[in-house]
Write a structure and sequence with these properties.
Layout lengths: L8 E2 L5 H11 L9 H21 L7 H24 L5 H24 L5 H28 L2 E2 L7 H18 L4 H34 L8
Parallel strand pairs: 1-2
Helix pairs in contact: 2-3, 2-4, 3-4, 3-6, 4-5, 5-7
Length: 224
């Protein structure tokens, strides 16, 4: 049986090395009663808080900073949970992969929901639904590719979850100072960029998996 490789990520993000040094420094300092699955489950709190602060931001944009706190907190617990499990030798490799990324998916959706509260135009609300579909499909590409290749990749061209989270925090700060009018042109741009990224990743993954099948030649057919 092929060894499960979900805990071994392929690809490196721009901040990956800095993040890894911080995690290695911090893991031994986590209080002993706290285990990896505790950190994983905290994403439920971060997700609920994100939606709450998004709703509150409809009354006062200062609550966007609350979303930023949720994003930072989710980065912290999400970065530490897997490494803490290895450090404590909990052995929850497959469960950790499953639950961690399921809750990542939920947190991602909570962000889209939170921002959708801040627009009134129906066409912008529709674009947020499209963005949710695209972002969900992008995650699906990573998971389906992993199922076919046993190589799990979430960082592409130097951009990984950490860089994306920084982008969310920067967006919250920008909207706080500029106002929600930025969504009228910003959301279409973000949707377009995400759509292009999804297309590129889907095509690259398809070509890679096709080549794997071609090289394996399980049917024993002659190859040109």
């Amino acid at each position: 049986m092929t060894q499960f490789a979900g805990d071994k990520k392929k690809g490196t993000s721009l901040l990956g090395n800095v993040e890894r040094r911080f995690i290695n420094w911090g893991i031994p300092k986590v209080p002993k009663p706290i285990m990896s699955h505790h950190l994983t489950y905290v994403t439920i709190f971060w997700s609920a808080g994100t939606i709450l602060f998004g709703w509150l931001a409809t009354k006062d944009l200062v609550w966007l900073h609350g979303i930023s706190v949720m994003v930072f907190g989710q980065w912290l617990t999400d970065s530490f949970d897997g490494s803490l499990g290895k450090f404590r030798k909990q052995g929850l490799v497959k469960w950790g992969f499953y639950m961690d990324h399921l809750l990542d998916f939920i947190f991602q959706g909570s962000l889209v929901i939170a921002y959708s509260f801040l627009v009134d135009a129906e066409w912008l609300e529709f674009l947020f639904l499209v963005l949710l579909l695209i972002s969900s499909s992008t995650m699906a590409v990573s998971f389906l590719s992993f199922a076919a290749t046993n190589q799990f990749q979430i960082a592409y061209y130097g951009i990984g979850p950490t860089e994306i989270r920084i982008g969310y925090i920067a967006l919250n700060t920008f909207v706080f100072f500029i106002g929600t009018e930025v969504f009228s042109w910003g959301v279409p741009v973000i949707v377009a960029l995400n759509a292009v990224a999804l297309l590129v990743l889907a095509v690259q993954s398809s070509k890679n998996i096709w080549q794997i099948d071609y090289d394996a030649n399980l049917d024993g057919q002659p190859r040109p």
